[in-house]
Amino acid sequence: MDSFEGIIEFVAVAERRGFSAAAKQLGCSTSNVSRQIARLEERLGCALLSRTTRLVSLTDNGTVYYQQAKDLLIGLQQANEQVNQQQIKLTGTLRVSAAGGFAEHFIAPALVLFAQNHPELTIDMDFNSRMVNFVEDDLDFVIRYGELTDSNLIARKLVNRPLMAVATKAYLQQHGEPKHPSHLKSHSCIVSNNDVWKFDHENGPESIKVKGRWRSNNANSVLDACLRGLGIAYMPQSTFQSAVADGRLVPVLEPYWGKGTSSWIVYKNKRFMPLRARLAIDFLIQHFANWEERETTHPLP
């Protein structure tokens, strides 16, 4: 093909389902859009659009061509941004949702560093564990702990989060120390997001349903309840590292600790996202590339 003329107009019409809407998006006249697409169809030797008085739809050839043309435009835009990103001043608002101590103690400080590198960028960070709607909430990405269940979303692993079980010395002196996960059935357990705790040992994985006097989806409240002797807690290791290091908490069931799960960056499955979001995600992935769960001294979920 000798010319790329008409491709931008064609993609706009295909996505907006109309010539007037496409013209409004592109900031040109409807006649110009129609003329450019007619020339494109003439060069290709086939009809790309089926036109009626009320509806514009893609032909079979148009559907195939749209996918290729869309990829071409996205690739061109991303290539331009990649070449110029060192000179680009990121603007607008980066909207992020995150929850828990990991987000508070690590994600937020990392995004502060990112903001310092881009002084014209605004960051709106929502600390909320509820399920989010990317469209309604207008979010660029979220930070979540656990398995991804929505196949329409993309998840990139940020850090691994192996588990640790702990209690106070006073609790263990009063109630005894469990030597096997099954012993937890006779103990008061502090429940976070799940009352089924998963352990690993030489005979394979084992799941134990636990119960107790305190339940919360907030890591800091679970840590506080454990420190006050309400029972045994089981969460990612970094939640308890400081308290274990200074003797306030004692590890239990260490041979059976589970591998846990991971914290993820989750975003909508779309081919193109704002440069500010893409660069922020890349920044976080690089920032946490060598992060180890047991090396930190800050409480996390």
TrEMBL record:
**Record-linked PROSITE patterns:** HTH_LYSR (PS50931)
InterPro entries, from UniProt? LysR-type_TF_proteobact-type (IPR058163), LysR_HTH_N (IPR000847), LysR_subst-bd (IPR005119), WH-like_DNA-bd_sf (IPR036388), WH_DNA-bd_sf (IPR036390)
Q: Does the keyword Transcription apply?
A: yes
A molecular function (GO) term: sequence-specific DNA binding
**Keywords assigned:** DNA-binding, Transcription, Transcription regulation
GO biological process terms, semicolon-separated: DNA-templated transcription
Pfam families listed in its UniProt record: HTH_1, LysR_substrate
All copies of the HTH lysR-type domain together span 10-59
Concerning its family, UniProt says:
Belongs to the LysR transcriptional regulatory family.
The protein's name is LysR family transcriptional regulator
According to its UniProt entry, this protein's organism is: Marinomonas profundimaris
